[in-house]
Every structure is written in C-alpha cells, then in structure tokens.
Amino acid sequence: MDYHKVYSYASDELLAPETLCFALFYVGVYKNEAEIRTELAELKHYLDVELRPYVDHYPWHVRPVEYELVDDKHCFLYGELEYGENMDDLWVVASLLFRFTSRSENIYLHLYDQDREFLLIEAAQQVPGWLEPECASNRVWINMRRVVCVPKEYCEGRNLDLGEALAFLQSASYRLEVLGDVTEELVRRKIANYPQEALKHIKMESLLVSEQTARKLVGRPAYVAGAAISHFLEPVRVLGLRLTGQRPSRLVKLNVRVNAIVHMDLQKYGETAAGMGEITDRAIQEEGLGENIDETDFEDFLEQHNKTTEHDPLQRELLRYNVIEKRVEWEQPEQVEEEKQRYDEDMVEKVKQFMNRETDWAGAGSESDGDENEGDESEDSRIRDYFRQEGVDIDEDDFFEFFCREALQLSKEDMEQLRGADSEEQDDDTSHGGGAGEDSPTDDTEVLSNLLASLASSSSPAATLLNNL
Length: 469
Fold this sequence. Notes:
This protein is α+β, with helices and mostly antiparallel strands. It has three domains: about 5-195, no CATH class; about 200-325, no CATH class; about 335-360 and about 375-465, no CATH class. Helices cover about 55% and strands about 10% of the residues. It contains 21 helices and nine strands. A four-stranded antiparallel beta sheet has the order 2-3-1-4. The chain has a three-stranded antiparallel beta sheet with strand order 5-6-7. A hairpin with a 2-residue loop joins strand 5 (about 140-145) and strand 6. Helix 9 (about 210-215) packs across helix 13 and helix 10 (about 225-235) packs across helix 12. It is elongated, with a radius of gyration of 30 Å. The protein starts with a helix and ends with a helix. Mean pLDDT is about 80; it is low at about 355-360 and about 365-370. It holds the Pfam family SGT1.
C-alpha cells in the first residue's frame, strides 16, 4: 500500500489494476495540524468499528480493505482495496465510505481506481459537459453524502494536483458545485443497494477437506479460504483441472462462506463436497499457510467453527449494528448465470461446427485417389505390426473405456449411457435391414452432438479440449 499515489494522481502514472484507492481528509478551517490529526485518529477509530464485521467475516475476493493514518505533507486517512473480479467488494467499501462522510461536514473523501474518477463513469449521463477526463482529476469529492466538484473556473481546462484541490477546499468550500444528479444516480444504482446486494451473493459451502487443511483454516478470517481458492483456480479456467481423487484417509467437514464467483467455480470444477474439498486442499497447500490451532483442541474448535459459519456471523453483526433490517437470502447472480449460459451455448455450437467439419472431411476422403488410401492402410499396418512385436494387445473396447475415463473423465453411468445409445442404434439399423457399414453420418452427428452438449458445462478435460477447438 503506497499512499504517495495521492500526490502523483494527476500524472500519467497508471494505478494498480482492480484496486480501489481512497483518501479521507478533515478540512477544519479553524483547527491546527495537531487538532486535525486528533480528529482523523478519532475518525479512524469509528471506521475501524464500522469495518470490523467485514474484515472478520466478509469473504473478500483477494484481501480485506487496508488503511492507515498518514502524516506526510498533509494528514489524512489513506486506504486501498484490491477487489479483483468481484465488484461487490468495491461497492461494499465505497458505499460504507460514502455514508461515513455524514459523520462531519469537514470530511472530504476522494475515491478512485484505475479508471480514475470512477464515480463519474458510473453516472456518466448526469456529469456536466465540461467535466471531461483531462480536467477531472482531484476535482470530485464526497462530502456529507453528496458528490461535490471544484468548479470549472478554478484552474480551468486542466487537472488539479492534490495541493491545489485542498487549497480550494480550505479557502472556498462554499463555492463547491453540488452534483445533485450524479449523487442521485449513484445512490439509486449502487449506494442504496449495498451491502444487501453483496450479501445476496455469499454462499456457505460444506467441504470435505483434509484434517491438515482444516487446522490451517479454523480460526482464520473468513476470506482466507475463498481468496486461496480463487487464486488457485485462475489458471484452471484456461488450462482445465483434473482432480486426482487421491485423498487422505481422514477427511473432515469444514463450512466456509464464499462469494458467488468462487461458489460457481467450486461447483463447476469440484461438483461434490469431496471434489471441492480436494480443490481447497490444493489451494491452501499452495498458499503455504501454517496450522492455526493445537491438536488437542482441534475437534472442539472445528465443531464451533462449523456452527458459527452456519449461523452467518457477518449478517448477525450487521443486524446488531442496524446496518441491515433483516437477513438477506442467497440469490444467484444474473451476470454469472448469463455467462454460464453463454459458455454452454458457445460450447455446443463449437461442437456442432466440429462435427460438421468431420463429416465434410469424411465425404471428401471418399473421393480421393486410391494411392492415398493405400498409404494410410500401409501406415496402419506398420503401427499394428510394431505393437504386436512389443506384445501389446490393443482392444477397441478397452481403449474406449480408457479414453472416456482418463481423457474425458466420464462417470461409469455416462459410459454405460453412451454404450446403450450405440447398442440401440445398431439394433435399430438391424431392424430396418441396414448393414453394419451403412451408418448415417447425420445420425452420428446428432448422437455425438447430444452427448457433447451434456458435457459442455462440465469441468472435465473434455470441456477444456472442446472449448479450444
């Protein structure tokens, strides 16, 4: 965390991606530096209290928000939140800070991320025409739950550095332009919906993990498990994941709360409590965490952890602080569902295109000259001769079962269903007087398309392979 960013913000230096930065100033016209420092220390205490339930119990996607009291040139609170893929994290913090400004009319809050004045982007239709990116830096502040702006006439046509902005707030805050439409749009679209919107997207998972993993997670903040899983699964979305199924003899039940992104990934790649537990074991091992509780107290701590997690301590605390009026139930995020549906549709379409291409190649091959076919047969013969010399007996049924089990990771039920479909097709061909070599390419395409469509949303290497076609 580097608070010097507030001083270089007007430059072309890029901010860290997917990171929310905030600077909170206390502008007291009649207060000296020591008094301002005292006010900020008190505000930090209140902010600690308001953020405590989230720091302890909220499943941050990367890590909790961090902040500190800075006394360098200016005295202020500076903080950062790396929110990664989860925009809920950003708006949980942004909405809390927005409301926090009502504690004093002397609080001025500056929020920004890699898109700079992201509040203006969220309410772009309501932003004054003159407030363009080349002159917006350090002009937009939050004060008393209002979005206010240093007017156009002050250093017209260019960005402000931090010193210029603070000088205006100190001497001419009464001339600030209140962006009422921007405030109303932000409150309507985002601020008023949080933290409830984020709470809808938090799910409890009951995992079967190794005892060692449980020892490392019990007693730690709630975000640790989900953040580790998210980090572990990042390359998996490109490379795919194969679960070994080789687990310790002793597995224990561990309840964790995760955000919707991690929940969907666990369901996709782990499917079962044991599969999700294996992912968690590997993720925690990769993080290199040490054991967190003594062996003698493990069973009691684990039981208490699972009970506490089941009762949702985050919502319990938010109810106690009157942040929410009633408990919020889990709700599947629309965006995740839409992306999943789009993924499935794209996968099926790719399979159809692939199958059609295979059919076209088969048709083209029937018209090729005999020399090419003879060459292929000769190559096949040499391969078979080699395996016979090595004493390797290749059985088509054994290879089919091996390929389905190891490469496609089909279950026994799926393999039996595929065999059954093939048997029914052969019986149907026989009943209609068809010969063994007269299978319809169209029927083959339809059967395989239906099969592969059922694999489209799976987490197996088959889905990864087909997705790259």
